[in-house]
Amino acid sequence: MKKSIIALILTLAFALLLASCTAEGTKTANLDPNNPTTITVWHYYNGDQQSSFNSLIEKFNQTQGKEKGIVVEASSQGAVKDLEDNVLAAADGKVGAGDVPNIFAAYSDTAYAVDRKGLVADLSPYFSKKELDQYIDSYIEEGRFSDDHSLKIFPIAKSTEIFMINKTDWDKFAKATGADISDLKTLEGLTATAKAYYEWTDSQTPKAGDGKAFFGRDAMANYFIIGAKQLGVEVFSLKDGKPVLNFDKDVMKKLWDNYYVPYVKGYFSASGRFRSDDIKTGNIISFVGSSSGASFFPKEVIADDNNSYPIDMEVYQAPQFKGGEKYAVQQGAGMVVTNASDEEIYASVEFLKWFTNTENNVEFSLASGYLPVTKDGNDRDALNLSDETDKKTVAIVSTAIETVENSTLYTTKAFKDGTQARDILEYSLSDKASADRKTVEANLKKGMSLDEAAADFDNDENFKNWYTKTLNELEQLMQ
Fold first, then answer.
1. Residue 253 — φ and ψ, nearest 5°?
2. CA distance 229 to 82
């Protein structure tokens, strides 16, 4: 009897120990180096980012992957939207779609949609608390979009927004007018400076109304979401798992005044696919964009076949609303592991752990412009930003890290139709501004002054009409 009780106690103790080990992130699977497990990765990297990613995968396959029996095969799916479409098509089993990959890069809304189909693996059992504590807290929390505290998105590279300027043309303007770069720390100061730049360039020619735009912006949804947070309003939040909309009218008017109004008056612009394209053509001399895309900042302006010249870049933290709270966007897709065999999930996690150790993650960061995801990796000393490192990369990564250190990073929580909600913010104001600017330009050609040409657009009634229309679209989507 005593032996039976002792055996039962030992069995229970062993079971509890196993449960504890699993909870502490020691869930494993048997891998065979002689019969390696192949895992597929879909991503959206291109250019230097893709080259760096592929280089690290090759390094993994030849070292830890070879030792443990893991082979990683990566495939670029094109742009982010192409990747999202291909992942959802595979998840739905559509004709012609590929098999669901073991790992795919995704933002939270896409991960949420695939998770609702029951295809996303929970990575929590594969990580101990000590391991997760090595990563920046908000990056891990972004992947916990379920109420059960599961981990569905794992960070491997992040970015934020920074302000980039063509210093060569800025210096000409500043020397002639006394403009101060410190005025660009606030959005209000940016708007005022853009007006002054337009007027200064307009004065350089005999023709009135042909001033040049100063500024552009890559991601309008970020402007709404982060700008509103700085002003004390969370546009999209969750309550009891359901999305809540707060499209505050006064806050939206502030956003309108510092984007739409300067845009229709020609102080801001957006004509190329990205604002770095507009820098290259000389249509603008500054913009706010992702730190991960800053490496595409051009080395010269090519206004036309007969007019080109080299330019220098300078990088600053993105302007904030005056008196607002210091919020900055947290962006960059994480990696989602799909449900598969124990061996495939374990192999996928082993690769992600290896990729995000400080040495490998910093290597990817310096080659791609992305931010490392570990706390140690975001120590500038760990980045080894020596004189031998590309100066542009140093400026980009250093400024992005300063932003992480000095701001509260924010990203919206995933919710049903979240991508469509962001799309409304992305295009509702920018499309209107672009269309209305064309009318203003036509009015200028008729000989009107700028104020006369923009009078039908720079008024409260126009704002109210846009606000009501956009609010209705968001409310209908989120019902």
1. -65, -35
2. 30
Measured distance CA(244)–CA(230) in Å, rounded: 18
Contact predicate 145/108, CB 8 Å: yes
For residue 314, report the phi and psi dihedrals to the nearest 5 degrees.
-130, 145
For 268-290, the three-class secondary structure string (H helix, E strand, C coil) is ECCCCCCHHHHHHHCCCCEEEEE
pLDDT at residue 242 in the model: 87
Length of the chain: 479
- How far apart (Å, rounded) are the C-alpha atoms in residues 421 and 425? 7
Dihedral sign from CA coordinates of 404, 407, 408, 413: negative
Task: Read off the tokens for 286.
Answer: 């500054």
Sign of CA dihedral 259, 261, 266, 270: positive
Question: Where do runs of H (alpha helix) occur along 356-390?
Answer: 358-368
In the prediction, which pLDDT does 390 show? 67
| DSSP at 102 | S
Positions of the chain with pLDDT under 50: 1-3, 6-23, 387-388
Instruction: Using the CB atoms, write b or e for 401-415: b if 16+ within 10 Å.
Output: bbbbeebebbbbbbb
Rounded CA-CA distance 216/53 in Å is 30
CA distance 182 to 210: 27
User: Structure tokens of 373?
Assistant: 């995801």
CA–CA distance, 76 with 445 (Å, rounded to integer): 46
Say if residues 147 and 241 touch (Cβ distance below 8 Å): yes
Q: How confident is the model at residue 98, as a pLDDT?
A: 85
Rounded to an integer, what distance in angstroms lies between the CA atom of residue 214 and that of residue 191? 9
pLDDT attached to residue 369: 75
Question: CA-to-CA distance for 84 and 185, rounded, in angstroms?
Answer: 35
Q: Which two tokens stand for residue 181?
A: 């770069």
**Closest among 73, 113, 107, 108 to 92, alpha carbons compared:** 113
Beta strands in 259-394 (DSSP E): 286-290, 300-304, 307-310, 313-317, 327-329, 334-337
Instruction: Dump pLDDT digits (tens) for 222-244.
Output: 999 999 999 999 999 988 888 99
